[in-house]
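Title: Prediction job returns without error message
Component: structure pipeline
Severity: low
Priority: P3
Assignee: unassigned

Description:
Job completed but the reporter wants confirmation the result is attached to the right record. Sequence as submitted:
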Amino acid sequence: MNESNSPLSAPVRADTAACKRLIESAFALGVPRNHGKLRDLRRVNEPRQLAFIGHDTQNRPQWLAPRAARAWRRMHAAAGRDGVELLVVSAFRGIEYQLGILKRKLERGLGIEEILRVSAAPGYSEHHSGRALDVTTPGFAALEEAFENSAAFAWLCTNAQKYGFRLSYPRGNPHGIAYEPWHWCWHR
């Protein structure tokens, strides 16, 4: 179910048994079994419901957990009133999708440690929760550190907490994950 009038169907979320199988597959591909402990990360469950939040920069439908979606809509509208355009790059991503990212990067010849510095392991991504989203703004490439030089990033740093969002991976974060000025997660 979703909260909009959109005829789109929300993405299928994996049940508990499927999540366990997908995470086992990630371990088999080289993700350390103690990954969560090593990186001070918790496993993330997929939400029971998702709400449609519009389309991303590639015109793909995007979804968040209902309360995070309402907060995003309020924050997005407030930014717009202040002359700041926030564009969604990515929102909910299931564990299966995250496993696909890992596999594609391994197929390109990247090592597991290199991958885990820039991509969350399946089962550990905040995107699985339906509360995280990656954003950009016109004139800035998606998922690039240069986003920190945008008016949108400055606006988020000043205002995102009013809507329950926070920057998850600042420079020097304790999780050993690369700095991601575009990644914001709702925490209320």
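Comment from assignee: result matches the submitted record. The two ends are 21 Å apart (CA to CA).
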